């Protein structure tokens, strides 16, 4: 991985913008097929509903896609605040796998990651960079929640359910202290911070799965 040194502030290279756009679109397509299984079968049967596909794609990109990308950009913002050089890189192989998984009704997404390097940082700073992603998803779930409470049945209600459930599941999943997930880095910094964020994230993820749903 090659990094370019940026000036002060948040900047995006042409490659990073391209990767963010590709990840956003690919995730939208993958979850469109996952949420609407009939679209995949209709496509094979030659009776594909363009209107349904466009509406579902817009919902997916505006909820799932935003949740994934803002999660990653939160890592970037905090890393830069600590003097690191940080850029998002899409994993095009995993994006293709995500679309294929969506077509067969399987939930899987690993669109890429923010990689950062440069100035040496402390375990605390590394933990803060990591926890920024799940905390962003928790905040996004709170933003979408009023749509669940106050919107009538319809597209806004669906957007609220998707926004809440997907973001809470993302927060809970990423706080698992395993492999490259954020939880492992947070735990390496502070068991107290890890415990609080893990319990809140996982608890809310279970609540969302049981009582909020995805609106489909």
From TrEMBL:
GO molecular-function term, one example from the UniProt record: metallopeptidase activity
Transmembrane segments: 20-37, 43-71, 92-115, 127-150, 162-181, 187-214
Domain of life of the organism encoding this protein: Archaea
Keyword Cell division: no
Alphabetical list of InterPro entries matching this protein: Metallopeptidase_M50B (IPR052348)
Entry keyword set: Hydrolase, Membrane, Metalloprotease, Protease, Transmembrane, Transmembrane helix
Name by which UniProt lists this protein: Metalloprotease
Organism: Halocatena marina
Lineage start: Archaea, Methanobacteriati, Methanobacteriota, Stenosarchaea group, Halobacteria
